[in-house]
Amino acid sequence: VQFTAPPFCPCPVVVSIHDLSFEHLPQTFKRRSRTQLRLTVRHSARRAARIISLSEHARRDIIETYGITAERVSTIPLAAPSNFGPVHDYRELQRVRHNYGIDGDYILSVGSIQPRKNLARLVRAYARVRASLRENKSADKLPKLVLVGKCGWLYDETLRALDETRVKDTVVLTGYVPQADLPALYSGALCFVYPSYFEGFGLPPLEAMKCGAPVIVGNKTSLPEVVGDAALAVDPFDVEAIASAMKIVIESPALREELGRKGQTRAEA
Questions:
Q1: Among 95, 190, 191, 220, which residue's Cβ finds the most Cβ atoms within 10 Å?
Q2: CB 109: neighbour CB atoms within 10 A?
Q3: What's the rounded mean pLDDT across residues 17-44?
Q4: pTM of this prediction?
């Protein structure tokens, strides 16, 4: 089972716990959700015969936070779907762009709109990048920002950032996107940015790497473990650091090629 086991079970239970963000970042959850998770996941973890985590970071966190013996927690990392890979078919790339109203170059991020995905800071960083690039490029040549994912919870800060930075007209909010469209979205992006500050694993960066996209991630929790040296890792709380990484990748075709190549190798390992 994932996270929460049945309260009464006549046989040994194996529980998969992806992360403990609700324990460490309660302010990023609605009160009812965090209360429920704290009660049920703690109880499930302490009763489980075995616990599966998705990363070594998550494993250590479960052991330390819940006082679980190390022998009861095993790590089984995720992998990007087998059908993901670079999309070179021009018609497929154009089909997906047309479906989501994307024209020209774009920076991509994938994940539900919720606090710890850190999209408000990404929007502010993107605004700085646009302001910096505007000196050498006309407005219609500047990359768009494409945010893929449905509104999760407590997403007001992200929407407010769009208004305050005045980049709303150059940001595409796609909402939910079916998995079949993701490879083309990843493949067509100038770069993929995932500035989350708490992840039990973080699958989207691995998906992006498998599709050959240059990747930038936050340098907290499990993300450095997932991407290794195949991506740029920056302080997710530093808007200027996020902006600088994006600008470097956008302006350097050689770096994009290097990160894309390294990412594919790591994602396929």
A1: 191
A2: 26
A3: 92
A4: 0.93
